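Re: the request from the purification team.
They wanted to know what the chain is likely to look like in 3D before they choose a buffer screen. I agreed to run a prediction and write the result into the notebook, where they can find it.
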Amino acid sequence: MAAAETVKTTVDQYTAAGATAFKDAVEKSLSALTDANGHSKKNLEAVVASVTAATKGAETLGAQAMAFSKASLEGQVSAAKSLAGAKSVQEVIELQTSYAKSALETYMGEMGKMSETVAACLKDSMKPLNERVTAVVERFQAAR
């Protein structure tokens, strides 16, 4: 009878240990799943913020391009009127040279502004993604 009691006690101990181990494993898995879901949500939020910033930058760039196109067209019309009113070939050459120089300077200035807009847009749209990458790297470093 003592042997049966020993076997029963041993089985009860293994059963209790197995149940505890299973419970701990389930709790750890649920905790890890909850943590992963939290990170996924933050990643999605970062992507949305990035796309929003990129869209805003594209809108700004589009508005700049439209304003430049309008101003450029107005400058061309004004230059054409000036050329039409020229009294000599020399005046036509001077007007055309002046317009070409002015148009090139304006174009170069506008390209500089657009480059700054693109750089700012890229910076703003990458910031949320960089923050998430940094968070993941820090999490891995903390786990080591």
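For the purification team: The chain has one domain: 10-143.
Please add any questions underneath this entry.
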